[in-house]
Amino acid sequence: MSRPNCPKCHYPLKACLCESIEQMHVSTELIILQDPSEVGHAKNSVRLLSLVIPETQVIVGELPEDFLKLRQYLNISSKPIYLVYPSDKSRNVEEVNLEGEVILLLLDGTWRKAYKLLQLNPWLLDYPSLHLDLESASNYTIRKASRSDSLSTLEASAMMLQAIEPKVNVTPLTKALRALVDQRLNAMPAEVRKRYQ
């Protein structure tokens, strides 16, 4: 029998995060291309991101046909579009003068899955790419990552927004993530929790 979920935040009732959700609105358009394996993941930060920023668009898929409607939308958009993905050709968001409203495309999944999404969808490379100059490790300690520059999609979004819209207070995002992490850590047996601290 499945555990009952909160009708508002959709997390299990015992793990309801409603008290930690403070909605915010931004000018930047966030579009998440999500690997299908991330959808049901209990530690999925995109669900949290969508609760805090309701305008966030999440498109689940892997193959180009999964993103046909998105591509049509992007083709008629008048806003500048950027892919958030570090590469030899990407530019540090802090060094790019982004004026007006922009669209950010983020890939949600492990590094391996994000790379696979990119390989399966070479059309994404038509857009200029941006990266973050990371000075500190991720606060998303409940998921292990193979790279030191790994961030949750929520963290990457928050940092991008901070760089693009300096007047926006991203505290609602970081507060929600902290609540999720604390909750997951507190639910772990003490010996397991030590591995994540």
Verbal overview:
The structure is a single chain. The protein is an alpha/beta fold and 197 residues long. It has a single domain, classed as Alpha/beta knot (3-Layer(aba) Sandwich), CATH 3.40.1280. It is built from six helices and six strands. The chain has a six-stranded parallel beta sheet. Strand 1, helix 1 and strand 2 form a beta-alpha-beta unit. Helix 1 packs antiparallel against helix 5. The longest helix is centred in the last third of the chain and has 17 residues. The radius of gyration is 17 Å and the shape is globular.
Cα gyration radius (Å): 17 Å
Instruction: Tell me the count of domains.
Output: 1
| CATH-defined architecture | 3-Layer(aba) Sandwich
* Envelope shape: globular
Element-level helix/strand string: EHEHEEEHEHHH
Q: Can you give the helix content as a percent range? A: 25-40%
**Helical run tally:** 6
What's the CATH first level?
Alpha Beta
**Average pLDDT rating:** 84
Low-confidence stretches: 136-149
Beta content comes to 5-15%
Strand line-up across the major sheet: 2-1-5-3-6-4
Largest sheet: 6 strands, parallel
Looking at the structure, the CATH topology is Alpha/beta knot
Structural class: alpha/beta
